[in-house]
Amino acid sequence: MGDDLVQRAHWGNLAGQNWAGLARLSTEETEGEISSDATSEEAGPRFVTGRDIKSTEEQERDGRGFVESRGGQYVHTYMEPDTSAWKRKRVRLPDGSIGYRVVRPVFEGALEDLKRGKPRTVSASTD
Fold first, then answer.
1. CA-based radius of gyration for the chain
2. Which of 2, 25, 61, 107 is the most exposed place for a label (fewest CB within 10 A)?
């Protein structure tokens, strides 16, 4: 059954499936990254910053709309504000040494919830 759900989702049929979204908003600037929609020659290249990301409300609305338009049920939004998906932080490892890791507790919690089959809390709707 699991393979069938994955195949149906792959083809855009989310009927009977529960989905959760992850909304994040970062104010970090990304240096040197050029937007793929920078097509206007007169304006020149547009550099992407964290400020170009949609608001968390827009991200949730877009995710909910995407899932529901394909027959799925949107059940939860994980909010991950000001958390980088790529920037590593210095952490002390169990053996006492220092290492650098991407620290994303909300994302890690979402993965744990996925393993359990449901979110820990009920999301407040922004409809």
1. 18
2. 2
